[in-house]
# Entry
Amino acid sequence: MRTAIINTKLLTFQGNGLGIIEDGTVSFSHGKIDFVGKSNDFKGEGVEHIIDGKNHVTMPGLVNAHTHTSSTILRGGAQDVPEIEWMNKAIGPIAKHLKKEDGILGSKLGVIEGLRSGITTFGEYTSDVGRLIEEVYAPFDVRVTATETINEVTSNKENLGPKDVYELDRDKGRKSLKVTDRLYDKYDGNDLVKIMYEPQALDMVTEDTLKQIKEHAEKRSTKIHMHVAQGERERLQIKGRYGRDTTTIKVLKEFNLLNEKLLAAHCHGTTQEEKEIMVENNVDMVGCPSSIAMIDGIVPPVSEFLELGGNVGLGTDQAPGPGTHNMFREMRTASILTKTKYKDPTKLPAWDALKLGCIGGAKVLDWDGKIGSLEKGKSADIITVDLSKVNLTPSVDVPFHNFIPNLVYSSSGFEVDNVFIAGKHIMRDGKFININERKVVEEAQNRADALFKEAADDWEEAGSYLVNMTRKGLL
Ligand SMILES: [Zn+2]
# Structure
């Protein structure tokens, strides 16, 4: 079936600038875009499904390049706490009551939220990711770059101080590496699923395993997606493991891992010189501004990598902490935090933020041959945004298109009303076609009620700052 979205404002990301077409049409058939241009030039042969795009902007689906959707069931579970308490005292005591099925339910919740706000591609990062592909991404027909966590840290770290090096278990790594190999073979050539390798972080795997991961990824011409230079804990571990004067970036360079096959997440523990080395070596970067600001009180170096000429994407990380899987909010947060950090309102402008959310994310996840812009031959991963909503009004085209800043600074994300992935209609006029959103929301609510109750004693005993605030009637 050939579908056309007509009389719409197009944001194509083609050519110079953003590729804006005021009265445009995009059409697609067999999952692929077959026309993008001015409505006047559109012939319309064989179109069976027409969507009137009046008062809408039609653009590529957004790319959430780094996320752990399975923890969405813990949304609101840990924020406004000191960084040192976030994992062990705030979210950990609740997370330890999670069952496997909770991860699936959490992921459904997160992916539905993302779809509703225009995300069509996810960079999913978790253990047992094969189940998420089978039970969430595949049945929902959503595009995903999936990575299976490879983490060799043993559970014997209770009595370790921050400078004590953790014990690592090679067998754990070997198993996860095998899982990744199998997933790669299973989804090789799949239209919607791509597999990358995922050592969780340099301090969490042995040198040996890391070298194997590199070999396996190279053999399959796929990338390594890794948390890099995540701050103090990692810094101390790397010094303890590899020597006083070294850093994550220096070790990665020594292991020949700084190249176009590395997608580095976060990177807030890197120096300016290290950022330059990374970009010179074509390392891609993904930043999660809401998450890193909420958990660490730090602005991740998204604009720094961008200004150096690197490929950069944005991600929502996990819901507890940052709060949402909503890329419109992520683009806004990235921009506002960067302006504030540099006391400069020209930093990370709307046009750059939009590129990060679409074509930037597509590049870092290696999908840019297929998605990230509206171009003939590319996959029809397309969303429409209703510009007649009160918070996006007025929308003018002369003397400039104010929907560009409005998309980044004024939208909530929920003005998205149509979502297509590989030409398949996922959401029509704000309603899901094959996804039972209500059912997932109800199940998640019921399960979270039980889960948080179950964890209540452990949570209180852990005694985070939030326990005190709750006693004061603030939570
Ligand atoms: Zn992460």
In short: Residues 170-187 form the longest helix (18 residues). The radius of gyration is 22 Å. The chain has two domains: 2-60+374-432, 62-364. Residues 62-364 form a domain with the TIM Barrel fold (CATH 3.20.20.140).
